Structure to design on (736 residues):
């Protein structure tokens, strides 16, 4: 396009101006703001600037000549700069990861608004061509996006790499494939990072994404499993209960070939038979006292925690219970097995913990937390629900339990 | 609050606030209005301000225009939009054009209320929706009230606007219990984003709003998407800003209207979207509209002739499969 520079009106009274000196010659590249000439008004000598980028096509006035204001003095060609003077190109064209003909990587909107400084002709052509002329079958939004990112929908559809018709999400996927390695994409997905937080000027690999994650300290989200959600609900509910703790140390002599947990379950189950409230659930205005000793046992499996219930434990032999305990780790549990208990046990002794306290499971009246067995002694912390067992009830139960373990170890 | 109570509240408060507000129409006075909208107003404001008219729509609107020119703010009630055809010359040739013909010297501060749409077995001559006709007349403002809150605020605004307003209601809405809240500086010309969503914009108005809201949870669950629902509220002028903001986000648009598809109001909306938002669209726009038949009397056929929640779900399902959603 031709852009005409006119003799400026430099003062209210000026009606003619004299061109004193040209600062450019025909064929020169000029940029917005460059001084192209000096002119003399009735008052002073001033500089004339160009307000557009381009090439000086023609100087219309000779030095020393006087012309009326607003007369064109020079013509600037505003389109052909790039091939004339590639060095001065203000924007470096990002390298394409694909060997396609150069297409715009910048948004056409922005480009046109900026009066297109030194744009390669092919881009200029694309920008002035309506988007509908971009080939392939795709939605308008997909074509617009493809034009912005230089995606050749038609070629990709011929190769079968894009569905027909292509929609926005297909083109977006294609853009991402172009700028991210598969591993990098996976990372973005894992960390739920918006790919457009990156500057899409080169192929981005895993390392770059990793660096971004470190720099911005982005956490990796891990969705909660349904079990984890259940555990959270369980402990939150448990934290609301009015509980108190009883601390004791038991003398326990483990049996050969029998797991300690099995011995604990069996002994507690037997003692529970003599203390009805340990078999009780609180429901409305009633205690529901169950005839059997149903004991929930904390089992860690992977990252998950389960409270698996050993039903009718008083009726089972120590060997039967040991077999049940032995099978716990390598199987899944039915909802049936995860409910129906009134008392629980948790054992962290195998991790070398000497003493800890535990949260009551669901509707249980209490739980016993066992630490590490040291010289046939073990530290136990009981958590009791005060709504079900008062201190005296708990004291009787714990003492009975303590004596039972002692008798076993004395035998 | 019942929808009709919201309308009654708007009229009552306007009449109390300004003595120039009067209502006229068939059975609006002693009977309290065919849909009980003007209930209690005759006793409160008397026969000079609550005027029972003969069954003559042309004269109802003609008289109202005369009142408006003379300085009153009349609210004319036409029993249903179907009868408004009889008043068409007064509405289109006089109410809409008077301000222009007088070089702006006179205005017509007139509100014409009329319910339309498919009710229950009122048959072809009492079931039409004429929003498309009134929206095509320069000089008229057309508002469509789907809910109590909008009905109250928009009707009040209409009464005190100095230009003629066609105020559309829907016959099935009158006895509906609705949430109501008073809003300061209410803009009757703004569309309402009823529900926000990311993947699909559904435009609707009047009673179809409720059918759409029933269909949306099913669509969202079945297609695993989130849907934005916009109630257009003002049909003329149309709030393209709200529509445009939504479509720029979701890239897909469905319009649900009860009126016949051919030449329906939705055609105008979709045409504007195509003109202004073509490059934002990631799928062809979809119109879910009434069938191109006079509304049948038989209840099953009547329902078959207009969109229902089930049909909305089915058509969006089919359309989404064909268009990569």
């Amino acid at each position: 396009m031709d852009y005409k520079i006119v003799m400026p009106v430099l003062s209210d009274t000026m009606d003619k101006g004299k061109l004193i000196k040209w600062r450019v010659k025909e064929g020169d590249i000029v940029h917005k703001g460059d001084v192209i000439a000096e002119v003399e008004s009735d008052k002073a000598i001033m500089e004339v600037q160009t307000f557009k980028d381009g090439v000086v096509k023609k100087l219309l006035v000779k030095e020393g000549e006087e012309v009326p204001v607003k007369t064109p003095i020079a013509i600037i060609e505003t389109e052909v700069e790039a091939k004339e003077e590639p060095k001065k190109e203000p924007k470096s064209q990002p390298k394409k990861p694909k060997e396609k003909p150069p297409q715009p990587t910048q948004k056409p909107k922005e480009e046109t608004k900026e009066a297109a400084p030194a744009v390669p002709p092919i881009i200029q052509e694309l920008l002035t061509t309506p988007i509908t002329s971009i080939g392939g079958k795709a939605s308008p939004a997909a074509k617009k996006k493809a034009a912005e990112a230089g995606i050749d929908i038609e070629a990709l559809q011929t190769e079968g790499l894009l569905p027909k018709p292509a929609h926005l999400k297909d083109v977006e996927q294609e853009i991402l494939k172009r700028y991210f390695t598969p591993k990098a994409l996976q990372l973005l997905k894992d960390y739920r990072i918006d790919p457009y937080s990156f500057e899409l000027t080169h192929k981005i690999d895993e390392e770059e994404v990793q660096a971004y994650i470190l720099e911005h300290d982005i956490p990796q989200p891990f969705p909660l499993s349904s079990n984890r959600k259940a555990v959270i609900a369980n402990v939150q509910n448990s934290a609301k209960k009015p509980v108190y703790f009883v601390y004791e140390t038991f003398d326990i002599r483990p049996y050969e070939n029998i797991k300690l947990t099995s011995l604990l379950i069996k002994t507690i189950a037997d003692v529970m038979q003599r203390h009805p409230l340990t078999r009780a659930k609180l429901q409305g205005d009633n205690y529901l006292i169950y005839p059997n000793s149903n004991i929930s046992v904390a089992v860690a499996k992977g990252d998950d925690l389960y409270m698996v219930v050993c039903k009718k434990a008083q009726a089972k032999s120590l060997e039967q219970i040991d077999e049940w305990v032995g099978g716990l780790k390598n199987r899944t549990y039915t909802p049936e097995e995860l409910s129906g208990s009134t008392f629980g046990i948790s054992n962290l002794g195998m991790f070398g913990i000497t003493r800890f306290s535990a949260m009551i499971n669901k509707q249980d009246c209490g739980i016993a937390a066992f630490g590490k067995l040291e010289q046939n002694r073990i530290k136990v912390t009981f958590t009791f629900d005060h709504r079900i067992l008062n201190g005296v009830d708990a004291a009787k139960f714990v003492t009975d339990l303590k004596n039972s373990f002692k008798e076993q170890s004395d035998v | 609050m019942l929808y009709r109570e919201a309308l009654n509240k708007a009229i009552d408060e306007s009449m109390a606030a300004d003595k120039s507000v009067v209502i006229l129409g068939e059975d609006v006075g002693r009977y309290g209005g065919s849909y009980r909208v003007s209930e209690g107003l005759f006793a409160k404001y008397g026969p000079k301000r609550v005027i029972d008219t003969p069954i003559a729509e042309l004269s109802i609107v003609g008289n109202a225009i005369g009142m408006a020119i003379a300085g009153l703010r009349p609210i004319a009630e036409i029993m249903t939009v179907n009868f408004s055809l009889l008043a068409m010359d007064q509405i289109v040739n006089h109410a809409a054009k008077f301000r222009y013909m007088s070089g702006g010297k006179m205005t017509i501060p007139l509100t014409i209320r009329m319910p339309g749409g498919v009710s229950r077995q009122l048959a072809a001559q009492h079931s039409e929706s004429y929003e498309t006709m009134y929206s095509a007349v320069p000089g008229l403002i057309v508002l469509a009230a789907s809910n109590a809150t909008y009905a109250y605020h928009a009707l009040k605004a209409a009464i005190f606007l100095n230009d003629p307003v066609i105020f559309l209601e829907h016959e099935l809405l009158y006895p509906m219990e609705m949430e109501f809240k008073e809003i300061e500086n209410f803009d009757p010309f703004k569309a309402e984003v009823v529900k926000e969503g990311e993947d699909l914009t559904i435009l609707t108005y009047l009673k179809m709003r409720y059918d759409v809201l029933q269909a949306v949870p099913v669509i969202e669950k079945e297609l695993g998407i989130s849907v934005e629902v916009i109630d257009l509220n003002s049909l003329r002028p149309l709030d393209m800003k709200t529509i445009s903001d939504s479509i720029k986000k979701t890239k897909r648009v469905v319009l649900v209207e009860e009126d016949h598809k051919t030449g329906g109001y939705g055609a105008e909306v979709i045409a504007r979207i195509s003109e202004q938002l073509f490059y934002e669209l990631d799928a062809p726009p979809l119109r879910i509209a009434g069938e191109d038949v006079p509304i049948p009397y038989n209840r099953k056929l009547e329902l078959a002739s207009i969109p229902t929640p089930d049909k909305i779900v089915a058509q969006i399902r089919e359309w989404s499969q064909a268009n990569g959603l």
In short: The two ends of chain A are 108 Å apart (CA to CA).
